[in-house]
Specification:
Blueprint: H1 24-34, E1 48-49, E2 54-57, E3 66-73, E4 88-93, E5 98-101, E6 109-119, E7 122-123, E8 130-134, E9 145-148, E10 157-164, E11 172-177, E12 183-189, E13 196-198, E14 204-208, E15 216-220, E16 226-229, E17 239-244, E18 250-262, E19 265-277, E20 284-289, H2 290-293, E21 313-314, E22 318-324, E23 329-334, E24 339-344, E25 350-355, E26 374-378, E27 384-388, E28 406-413, E29 419-427, E30 437-440, E31 446-450, E32 455-459, E33 465-470, E34 478-486, H3 527-532, E35 733-735
């Protein structure tokens, strides 16, 4: 992208230090009081940014020839510019009231900025003071080391993602660094990152959740505001890659299952579908299923690599899907078949299968060119870049001691291609059994991702190392999935896409107007976005209530700030009146077991369920058939309310069984004032003082103690435990024979 006048080019400083942020709120109030309504203001007031390359923008002032922008460290005072030296001081033409600042700022700092117009060389008065903050870099971010080689690295920033195999990083970190390895932008994702790319709009498209079972594709602003998320549907678990289609839709990979007869025995196999999702509705508008187009005669005999633990045979394990507008084709990398397939987008016909020869005879060419590959990239010259992991080189199964991995450029022969050969290759210093990437850069160098080794290499055409970035090795271990060289982090794009008065980086629903920013489940994704995509408000892929179930699989989920977001086992312990009886479910409403179980009932019915809840030998309650205001015997007339500690104890049935003129009751003093004359309270019957005294009910004919004072009482409250399991999609039956 061409740089605009006034853009400052340079590498950012990084400084981590501890200091108080007192005074920031006071300063913010001053700034807000001084400011007026503005059409656009970047960065938004008081925002916390995850980058130190920052776009500044302000309303135009009529008659100005130039604008002067200053940025200082904010000390929280009413005028932070009084004694501070500006870290940014730049003049830009009035025709474009903005500046992309790429030097001077640092992470973990408070900042103040201001602008004034210049007319015929004479500066005007400074405008309002605005404030923002840059976040601290993640504490789990490992040290980044850059080693220069021969020549000069191609310009730009390097964007990649970092994960750890031992939990050192909780999830994953996406990061962009300059040529010296200094971070200029980052985002964290609890589910980790796989595919990651910068869109033309300046937003980030990524895939996460492979090992968390929460596979989703997401589009964020650079500051992490969620603009779009793929469906939380077991049939549409987006994994490995999300590719932007020309019209704005998203092409991705999802799992599919089928029962396959292998050697006469039925087996559950996992394949892949390639689906195009309408970004507005999340509906599938293009669909291609590997079970429909690949023969199950073809499979790797030992593809246990990266088994996802669902009990299915890991048949295809597609790790890349890209669309090429030049030939209207979809290219997929099918790792466990050591195959790259080109699909005609319009007809869905296979143009070619390139890769290992297999029993079906379907592969057209390319046997042993590569195996267990990643990241096909089409070049302008018609060739293909490919990362060859080499797990099955020469049709053998390799180990770290024998394996070799390469970055390849393949040249095709024929139209459509009928053959391929290696036009350029570079052998990595260490075998990479999984992950990896290779990209041809605009100037001719090649960026290679050695993911297992956590290293990035820039290699020239002669195979010489130009630049190397590496993370620490040993324990803990780090993994890089993919890397991209981007021209710049800041690109032209609308500051307020939906026109609701909130800039995209401060808007929890950037593409749908929602000035109120309502966010029921607190996931940072506005309710308007939720409704627009036809998703549940609990469909953010997170376990907001900590019950061990992600929200889409948690039927109790209504909203994270509403305690009804819960598991079935806790549905009666949420302090919510689920059955509308006026009582919170527990402990006030101990009849609640499950919202789908009628035992979750009102207090007035808890004694009318035909069940001996207190195990005293009596059905708890029968209706008042004669209308005298008293329950009809022989029911359990001691049952009044399940919240009372004794259901039908010897002295708590509100009946003068012994004829002493007093209700036979130990007494209830609800407010503890010593009196029993308040509403709902009952005075005691002094005749009935202890369950060991068989004095409450007279001895029935025939002798023996009656069910009154000698019976005792129990209150049993059973909370059901929810049992949840993942649905398996079992489709048609296929045969390998």
């Amino acid at each position: 992208m061409a740089q605009k006048t006034g853009v400052i080019i340079g590498s950012g400083r990084i400084r981590m230090r501890s200091r108080t942020k007192a005074g920031f709120a006071v300063g913010l109030l001053v700034a807000l009081a001084a400011g007026s309504a503005q059409a656009i203001l970047l960065p938004p007031e008081a925002i916390v940014l995850h980058q130190i390359h920052v776009q500044f923008e302000w309303p135009a002032v009529g008659g100005a020839d130039e604008y002067q922008l200053q940025v200082v460290e904010d000390d929280g005072s009413p005028d932070p510019f009084a004694s501070a030296i500006p870290v940014v001081d730049v003049t830009v033409p009035a025709t474009d009231p903005r500046a992309a600042v790429t030097s001077g700022l640092m992470f973990d700092e408070l900042w103040a900025w201001r602008v004034r117009e210049i007319v015929l060389g004479t500066p005007g008065a400074w405008g309002s003071t605005h404030r923002f903050e840059t976040a601290a870099l993640p504490g789990s971010l490992p040290a980044i080391t850059v080693t220069p080689g021969v020549g000069t690295p191609e310009p730009g920033l390097t964007m990649f993602n970092i994960g750890s195999t031992n939990g050192t990083i909780a999830g994953g970190i996406a990061i962009a660094v300059d040529a010296a390895g200094n971070p200029v932008w980052f985002l964290e994702q609890p589910d980790g990152f796989l595919d990651l790319r910068l869109l033309d709009t300046g937003r980030i498209l990524s895939v996460s959740g492979l090992f968390a079972g929460t596979d989703r594709a997401r589009e964020h602003t650079q500051n992490g505001q969620l603009a779009w998320i793929s469906p939380n549907d077991p049939d549409l678990r987006a994994h490995h890659e999300a590719f932007p289609m020309p019209g704005g839709n998203v092409l991705t990979i999802v799992y599919t299952y089928a029962v396959v007869s292998n050697g006469g025995a039925p087996e559950l196999w996992r394949g892949d579908r390639y689906v195009e999702l309408d970004r507005t509705t999340n509906q599938v508008v293009w669909d291609w299923n590997t079970f429909d187009h690949f023969s199950t005669l073809d499979f790797d005999p030992s593809p246990g690599t990266l088994d996802l633990g669902d009990g299915a045979f890991n048949w295809t394990h597609t790790n890349a899907v890209v669309y090429n507008a030049a030939d209207d084709s979809v290219y997929v990398s099918v790792r466990h078949l050591s195959r790259v397939t080109r699909i005609d987008y319009s007809t869905q016909a296979i143009v070619y299968n390139m890769g290992f020869d297999m029993p079906s005879g379907d592969p057209d060419f390319g046997d042993n060119l590569f195996s267990f590959q990643h990241a096909p990239q089409l070049l302008a010259n018609g060739n293909m870049m490919l990362f060859d992991n080499g797990n099955r080189r020469d049709h053998l199964e390799h180990t770290p001691a024998t394996g070799v991995s390469k970055a390849l450029e393949l040249a095709f022969t024929g139209t459509p291609p009928t053959g391929a050969s290696i036009d350029w290759e570079w052998t990595l210093p260490a075998y990479q059994a999984f992950v990896g990437d290779t990209d041809r850069l605009p100037g001719g160098n090649t960026l290679v991702t050695a993911g297992v080794s956590a290293k990035l290499y820039e290699i020239d055409a002669a195979g010489a190392e130009v630049w190397r970035l590496e993370l620490p090795t040993g324990v803990p271990t780090y993994v890089i999935y993919r890397a991209e060289r981007i021209a710049a982090l800041l690109v032209d794009g609308p500051g307020d896409s939906d026109g609701d008065g909130l800039t995209d980086d401060a808007d929890n629903c950037p593409d749908h107007a929602n000035a109120d920013q309502a966010d029921c489940d607190g996931d940072g994704f506005g309710d308007v976005c939720t409704a627009a995509l036809g998703l549940s408000r609990c469909d953010d892929g997170l376990d907001n209530d900590g019950d061990g179930l992600t929200d889409g699989s948690d039927p109790g989920c209504a909203c994270a700030d509403d305690p009804s977001e819960r598991s079935a086992a806790l549905v009666c312990d949420d302090e919510v009146d689920d059955d509308g009886d006026g009582l919170a479910a527990a402990p006030e409403d101990p009849g609640c077991d499950d919202p789908s179980d009628p035992s979750e009932r009102s207090a007035s019915l808890v004694c009318d369920n035909g069940i001996d809840d207190d195990l005293d030998g009596l059905t708890d309650f029968v209706p008042d058939g004669d209308g005298d205001g008293l329950p009809d015997p022989p029911g359990d007339i001691g049952c009044r309310d399940p919240t009372w500690p004794l259901e039908d104890p010897e002295c708590a049935d509100e009946v003068d069984n012994d004829g002493d003129g007093a209700v036979d009751f130990l007494g209830i003093d609800l407010n503890g004032d010593g009196d029993f004359d308040d509403p709902g309270e009952f005075p005691p019957d002094p005749q009935c003082t202890s369950p060991s005294k068989n004095r409450e009910r007279p001895t029935p004919p025939g002798g023996g103690g009656g069910p009154g004072c000698g019976a005792g009482a129990e209150l049993v409250l059973l909370l059901g435990a929810g049992l949840w399991w993942r649905r398996q999609r079992v489709g048609r039956t296929y045969s390998t024979a």
